[in-house]
Write a structure and sequence with these properties.
594 residues, alpha/beta, eight-stranded mixed β-sheet, elongated
């Protein structure tokens, strides 16, 4: 399966999200092909704002910018689904691909913890989150705590919500101690934010145990206690360990191997990977029952949960009572390891998530097939191919172009012959429109028999542009043009043009039908010239999905017969000109394929 991994964060960096993102990426890559999309987009949007002197723009403004950039990137990739998805990237994303979202929290829950008091920002952020949650085909959360908020606060159906615990961001220990020396109790605290992770309460609990002559040690990893003054030989402080470094990872694992309890009176945690890592070594955890902590820690199985109001004395008493019952403590270590083996590792996570991915794609394909079978008379892409009967090489060419593209329904229109080629083409277009009217089509595609699909064509890329162009009021959308005057971006990969050359592949919307039928075509007119005048808000896709094949002659434009390769040159020059406009419009997005 080919998966677009949508994230601004680098999934190959072990220091991002404490290594969680890299483990997710590695596990999915074992059985799927991952393509990372979204790198550096936040920095690029910031540069865009500075370049255009934009100030005080809100979250929604940037969400729309992200969507325009990402829609172009995504729809040019032939992938089965989109995974992960930063919440700000997806509210306005236009794609037909299924999307699966993964998170450990919601903005609503997070803002309550950080006490975000900006009402307007909260309102906008939650509005965007609601739009994104509605868009996703499936949502995976690491805890019931987060999942319930999505159900209760955002009113998302529980049928598309799944809860799967994260794994430990350390290698699966080949050695761990169930039967361990219980003469001295070795405590470990792991957290970068000393205050938020409950460091002070941990240190006070340790001191209380020491004062009661309870034999214990404490190792603090990731923080330096500001309140430490006296020297204590049983206290070890390690300000920082980088698990990306083999020597630091080995030291962390060695500490866990010899530990008896992980103690973490945290003020807030959406999940707590560290509890998975402790369980991997059979180390029970004692922590605050806040946020999503109750997901990795199961009461009496791999630790104990205390209320957020619990004191240092409460922690000390819990440690002492559990540790002093040696038989029960050893059983607790065994069950802690069991929780790791059955729930809290990335192999289990990968198996469960891959099943959801496969079911999502299967359901999407089934739904697509059902829609094709049951609603084919409601929605399809009618293509009217203009072809002279004696131009069999051109007919064969078109048949090859549309082979395997079931999204199109071809109707062959016998071209009207006329001494003036431009007049013959216009009469042929009128003939095609009359057939479309009789068929009660709301949309039609005019296709000349020299049309050629480019490598940029995908069904989703094309359909998204048709939908968006229609929403913007366009009456004509070209798949590729051979000339234009001015071009203005209307989307990430679509441009308004003042006039255009070439009609080899154009989408015509219903409002333009009657204008074509009513127009009094002159001998000096050209089809593209007339359409440039009568069609409202003409647009072209870019990158082009269509160009003209040079058969060495033209029935319409005599000049193209005089110089070999002229039509090919027209498209090359136009592509070059439009690429300049495109690159300037997306100056902050030069690494398009990253």
């Amino acid at each position: 399966m080919k998966i677009i991994f949508l994230s601004n964060l680098d999934p190959f960096n072990n220091n991002v999200w404490s290594g969680t993102l890299k483990n997710i990426q590695q596990k999915l890559s074992e059985s799927n092909e991952l393509i990372w999309v979204g790198g550096r987009i936040l920095e690029q949007a910031k540069a865009f704002s500075i370049y255009n002197r934009l100030k005080n723009k809100n979250l929604e403004f940037y969400a729309k910018i992200y969507a325009k950039i990402l829609t172009e990137r995504i729809e040019r990739i032939d992938a089965d689904l989109i995974f992960f998805g930063d919440i700000n990237f997806t509210p306005y994303l236009h794609t037909l691909k299924p999307i699966i979202h993964l998170s450990d929290t919601t903005y609503h829950l997070q803002s309550k913890f950080i006490k975000e008091n900006n009402f307007q920002r909260n309102q906008t952020a939650e509005y965007l989150e609601q739009k994104a949650l509605n868009l996703y085909d499936n949502l995976i959360f690491s805890s019931n705590w987060a999942a319930q908020d999505v159900i209760n606060y955002y009113a998302i159906s529980h049928s598309k919500i799944h809860v799967i615990e994260f794994g430990a961001n350390i290698p699966n220990p080949t050695k761990y101690q169930i039967e361990i020396d219980t003469n001295v109790c070795n405590l470990v605290f792991i957290g970068r934010n000393w205050t938020k992770k409950g460091g002070t309460k941990t240190l006070e609990a340790y001191k209380k145990l020491k004062n009661e002559n309870f034999l214990c040690t404490l190792t603090i990893i990731g923080s330096t206690p500001p309140e430490m003054q006296e020297k204590d030989n049983d206290l070890t402080i390690i300000p920082f360990l980088d698990k990306a470094k083999p020597e630091d990872l080995e030291r962390l694992c060695k500490i866990l191997y010899h530990s008896h309890f992980l103690i973490l009176p945290t003020e807030f945690d959406a999940f707590g990977i560290v509890f998975c890592e402790a369980s991997a070594y059979g180390v029970p955890s004692i922590a605050s029952d806040v946020g999503g902590v109750s997901q990795p820690i199961r009461e009496g199985k791999n630790g104990f949960l205390l209320s957020s109001e619990s004191t240092a004395e409460d922690y000390a008493e819990k440690i002492k009572s559990v540790f002093n019952d040696k038989e029960s403590y050893i059983k607790l270590r065994a069950s802690s390891r069991h929780e790791y083996e059955t729930r809290l590792n990335w192999d289990v996570w990968g198996e469960k998530v891959n099943k959801i991915l496969e079911e999502t794609v299967e359901n999407y394909k089934k739904k697509e097939k059902d829609n094709s079978e049951e609603e084919n008379d409601v929605f399809y892409l009618p293509v009217y191919v203009i072809n002279l009967k004696d131009r069999m090489e051109r007919r064969k060419h078109i048949e090859e172009q549309f082979y395997g593209k079931s999204e199109f329904e071809l109707t062959w229109v016998d071209a009207v012959e006329h001494p003036i080629g431009a007049v013959g083409l216009w009469k042929s277009i009128v003939k095609a429109v009359q057939i479309a009217e009789a068929n009660e089509d709301d949309i039609m595609i005019i296709c000349e028999d020299d049309h050629t699909f480019t490598h940029a064509y995908t069904k989703e890329y094309f359909l998204v542009n048709i939908i968006q162009a229609h929403e913007q009021g366009s009456e004509l959308l070209s798949g590729g043009i051979g000339g234009f005057g001015a071009a203005v971006p209307t989307a990430a990969n679509r441009y308004w043009v003042d006039w255009f050359w070439c009609t080899q592949f154009i989408v015509i919307f219903k409002p333009l039908f009657q204008k074509i039928l009513d127009y009094d075509f002159k001998d000096t007119d050209t089809a593209d010239g007339v359409l440039s005048v009568i069609a409202k808000d003409k647009m072209t896709m870019y990158p082009f999905i269509s160009i003209q094949k040079d058969f060495g002659y033209s029935d319409v434009t005599r000049a193209n017969n005089e110089i070999s390769g002229m039509i090919t040159n027209h498209f090359r020059q136009t592509d070059y000109r439009l690429s300049i406009v495109h690159n300037v419009a997306h100056k902050f997005s030069k690494d398009v394929n990253k």
